[in-house]
Amino acid sequence: MKKADVKELILSAKKAKGLGWEEIASKIGMSPVWTTSVCLGMNSAPKEKADMLVALLALPEEASAVIQECPNKIWEQAVPTDPAIYRLYEIVGVYGETAKELIHEKFGDGIMSAIDFEMTIEKKENPKGDRVVVTLDGKFLQYRAW
Amino acid sequence: MKKADVKELILSAKKAKGLGWEEIASKIGMSPVWTTSVCLGMNSAPKEKADMLVALLALPEEASAVIQECPNKIWEQAVPTDPAIYRLYEIVGVYGETAKELIHEKFGDGIMSAIDFEMTIEKKENPKGDRVVVTLDGKFLQYRAW
Amino acid sequence: MKKADVKELILSAKKAKGLGWEEIASKIGMSPVWTTSVCLGMNSAPKEKADMLVALLALPEEASAVIQECPNKIWEQAVPTDPAIYRLYEIVGVYGETAKELIHEKFGDGIMSAIDFEMTIEKKENPKGDRVVVTLDGKFLQYRAW
Amino acid sequence: MKKADVKELILSAKKAKGLGWEEIASKIGMSPVWTTSVCLGMNSAPKEKADMLVALLALPEEASAVIQECPNKIWEQAVPTDPAIYRLYEIVGVYGETAKELIHEKFGDGIMSAIDFEMTIEKKENPKGDRVVVTLDGKFLQYRAW
Amino acid sequence: MKKADVKELILSAKKAKGLGWEEIASKIGMSPVWTTSVCLGMNSAPKEKADMLVALLALPEEASAVIQECPNKIWEQAVPTDPAIYRLYEIVGVYGETAKELIHEKFGDGIMSAIDFEMTIEKKENPKGDRVVVTLDGKFLQYRAW
Amino acid sequence: MKKADVKELILSAKKAKGLGWEEIASKIGMSPVWTTSVCLGMNSAPKEKADMLVALLALPEEASAVIQECPNKIWEQAVPTDPAIYRLYEIVGVYGETAKELIHEKFGDGIMSAIDFEMTIEKKENPKGDRVVVTLDGKFLQYRAW
Amino acid sequence: MKKADVKELILSAKKAKGLGWEEIASKIGMSPVWTTSVCLGMNSAPKEKADMLVALLALPEEASAVIQECPNKIWEQAVPTDPAIYRLYEIVGVYGETAKELIHEKFGDGIMSAIDFEMTIEKKENPKGDRVVVTLDGKFLQYRAW
Amino acid sequence: MKKADVKELILSAKKAKGLGWEEIASKIGMSPVWTTSVCLGMNSAPKEKADMLVALLALPEEASAVIQECPNKIWEQAVPTDPAIYRLYEIVGVYGETAKELIHEKFGDGIMSAIDFEMTIEKKENPKGDRVVVTLDGKFLQYRAW
Amino acid sequence: MKKADVKELILSAKKAKGLGWEEIASKIGMSPVWTTSVCLGMNSAPKEKADMLVALLALPEEASAVIQECPNKIWEQAVPTDPAIYRLYEIVGVYGETAKELIHEKFGDGIMSAIDFEMTIEKKENPKGDRVVVTLDGKFLQYRAW
Amino acid sequence: MKKADVKELILSAKKAKGLGWEEIASKIGMSPVWTTSVCLGMNSAPKEKADMLVALLALPEEASAVIQECPNKIWEQAVPTDPAIYRLYEIVGVYGETAKELIHEKFGDGIMSAIDFEMTIEKKENPKGDRVVVTLDGKFLQYRAW
Predict the structure, then answer these.
(1) A15 neighbourhood in chain C, CB within 8 Å
(2) Does D78 reside within a domain?
(3) Tens-digit pLDDT profile for residues D6-60
(4) Cα-flanking dihedrals φ and ψ of residue D114, to 5°?
(5) Angle between the B32-39 and A83-107 helix axes, to the nearest 10 degrees?
(6) For I58, left (φ over 0), alpha (ψ -120 to 50), or beta?
(7) ipTM of the complex
(8) Which one of B44, F35, H111, I105 counts the least CB within 10 Å of its CB?
(9) Enclosing domain of residue F42
(10) Do C10 and C57 fall into the same domain?
């Protein structure tokens, strides 16, 4: 049993039980983005949370160990085609140099970590059309001089 | 005179005058991300703001018209190599499918616009290491059925 | 059951029943382009239309839920090889910059949405050779300054 | 003098004279899309129209011959990054197979020509947001069996 | 049953019956290049010819409908590796610009159609070594000005 | 002085003198395809022919040595974008496997040489539309078993 | 049964019988490089040699016909990753232009054939470390002028 | 002054003096392949040989230091297009796996070095057509187990 | 049975027995990096060590021969996406030219072998955060002049 | 003045003064790898060290500010071709998965930082051939669960 198998099992169980990602996240006491990424196989969970997922979704017992494994984070499309994902890629292309300038101005030479990192996705209601608000929150890492 | 020329002029004037992006943005009454992206040639400014930039940075007069032009948004590296930009790309790779799932769960079938879109970059102080907080805020666009 | 499975079922049923895409579209009260794209797995349908497709084509009941799912819009050939599709790609290559110029001239800095979007494909009879007329109709989205 | 040089001269003259593409097209009695593509160096013009462009924009005399030359239609980005052009590319990706199905259903095995081809770009006013309407009109070419 | 399945069936039947492509083509009254391309799944045949192929090669009855379907012309190697095919690719690379110059000189701005197109492959005996003679014969298509 | 410089000189002289490729070829007693490819820098000429080209086009004397040099045959677009050249590429994609089958059937295991090779491009008049006829004529090379 | 199936059968039989490539080659009276390439599916063998391979390795009878078929020479890695193969690729990169210069100096404008071609791989003992000696021997092919 | 500048100087001097690569190599007492690769900027020479090249070709004095520098071995075409170089690439593609098998059989797990490496290119006269003989001679390097 | 099959068997056995890579390495008397790379199919082991692995992990007997085979070292992602591996790739990108400069300064023109090569990965405890220490140790190979 | 200009100035001054990287590093009191990477434009230096470099190498005064700027870390070859750099890339390909396994075993789910990172390159003398020892030392960063 591999991450991809567990992902399939989770997606089936989620559909069968009529659960949403936010509901699953709330039941295991974690955030929706992290929980979803674990279920899709792009993050590992600590044993306690993995066991809760297995219980909540009635997965086979061995799924817990698989959920705890360090995933191999592979994406096959260097440039994603799905429009919902491509727009994020486009933002990196259009605003990447801008982000670099502002990070350097505020923090000095370094980067925002993608490892010591949190992310949220929220809905902001708006009469002119609701808005998606994505927040990326990563530790600043300074280049070391040695 | 083209966008790339004006970008060079702005970077030189900024360095010579010892100005920061936040300061420039504040002086023309716009946000730092938008202002920086205009200066780097990845967005166009309305005449009023373009004139203010020209005055503030003592650019040649014709620069204003160039700043108002619709840019040709080209990036040459499909996968960016600079670590500060790559980490953003990596986040799209690792969390893209997760974002898609959560947007669909909260809004239905559609995407976050990268056009009707705002972005901020903030510093969050933290004794364990300051954090970079990037906020993406785009209008939800629903797929039309016809 | 996944989008790809339902696509196969639809193509088989369509052939077995001798139905055309225009006929299917007409029976569910939607346009041919949208209906075809739903059947090929590149768009999701609302429940009512999904149920009508299932009934019309005598698909298994669970196909309706799959047709309602948000698809993962993936195409594997960055440059398509099939001549019928390549010619569309070539038009984007040859006339893309022209389209950009004219959209900016008529609307200002922004784009034609590919999400709030409709498309038709018609046959125009002509004694010198019939013509294919493809119409793209998308909402203009203006870049936001903030 | 090459196509790229003439393109630069045309863009400068157009800006200096405050002309729009539609106005230029109207003055030489041709459509805006074709005229713009000629000016950008992606199509050749017959002598009469080339001379009119040279007169209208006060270009150097030898520009007329260059405008009449068969262009080398090269685009460097297999996947365009500018959002206004990318959305057209995305439409080919999402609806390419659909277009192929409908062309085959209406016409038989063959393609829409990108050579014996016309294109228009129009603005359709709409209280919910104006719309861009792009029309592609190409001769149907049937595969020959021999 | 798909084009790829029918291709396999045809190749097996051809080997079992000891038939050559020229013989098959002659028996259905068509040219060898067109016939081979139909059998390999890269062209569609009219019903009459498809039925003749099915009869000649004793294929299952449903193969005829598949042979009549419009194929999805996909090749996976942008640069082919097999030496027999690569040499054709190399000729396009070395002589492509030359062909463009001569077509424009003889016909004006336009292209040779790859759709309204015929091709032959012949053996020319020669004491210094036999020669392969490939003839491409496509309709000239002139760019339309509108 | 390099091949690219001589190519520019030849194109200028050809335009200034109002010569066509066929006329140039005829004046040096060679075929149009070979002559054009030499002038574009994709083949080398023997001294006698190089000198005739220099005389005919009034090129600087040292151009003759350059025309005799073995060229470095480089093309930068693995998949050509110009439609006149792309159609040739497309023919290789669609009919490459067919050509391979027929060459093997007629000659055994081997290839058509692209070195010991000739090519012609002719115009065939036709009331339904003139046709471009391209002939490739290369020595068959058999794989050696050793 | 295809080339890939026969390759698997040969590799199994070779291992089971404890045979080496040199031994197999010697038993069918051919060179090791050619024999190995035939067994790996990258060359075809004449009937006599194919039958000898089938007998020697006790392959199923129909394998002989497959071994005689013209292979489709496909390699999937444009840049090979295995170090033993990459070093050969690197030599082409580092010494390719040198080889071209020396071939032209010794032979005139043309190439070394990869079809009318032989290759050996030998071990040269050396107290400082044994050496691999690869010899490529191909017919010189001169570009034809016509 | 860089390697590319010295290469240009060497090619000019070689042409002006009417020298061949073999003659140059012989005058500095080294092999033709190594000498040519040094002159083309793909290898460094020891001081003595660099000085001899400078003297022989009457290069400016500072060229000697440049010839002694460690080159940055860069090639821009992952798949070379020039036919003389492509054929070498093709041989790696067709015979790479074969070479790997035979090296492993003769030497064990390891590779032929491309660094501790020599190469010759010879002409072998043959009434049926002269042959190019390329010899690669590299030290066998065994994988270390630790 | 192939390398990939044995890798799967080893990973399963390792999990079932609760063994770590360091423990396995220690039990067969080899280093952890080498042992892991053998188990993952990227190196071959001598018979003695292969037999010890088979015994330790209770693999089927034929696995030993497979572990002794020379592997085909293939990686499919030219640019790895997993962050743990990408960071190593990034280090090559950022510090590659620096490493080249320093190797040349200390050793002369040549390279660090990746074949006669050892590697360790250690944990260095540190109150500010533990550190990963990777050591690469390869024989210097000097370019040969001949 | 940009990073690339300063790099050129430094390389010239270094050659003119006969300094080595280790000597330069020692004179500014930093490590050779970091110092070299700063000089090559791949890292920024604090003001004190930048001023020391300017003084030591007699660079123009404004070079100090450029040396302090945050660099844009771009490498153009996704797969490096120079053998000295390629071998490092190859090590990432061959041992990347191994490194990932061992880092996870020793530290848990996370990565070695390429930002909070140090590197050394040493020469280890050895009678069988000197060895290059490269040490990478980066902080372990654990994936955050939130």
Answers:
(1) 65
(2) no
(3) 999 999 999 999 999 999 999 999 999 999 999 999 999 999 999 999 999 999 9
(4) -100, 10
(5) 90
(6) left
(7) 0.97
(8) I105
(9) 3-68
(10) yes
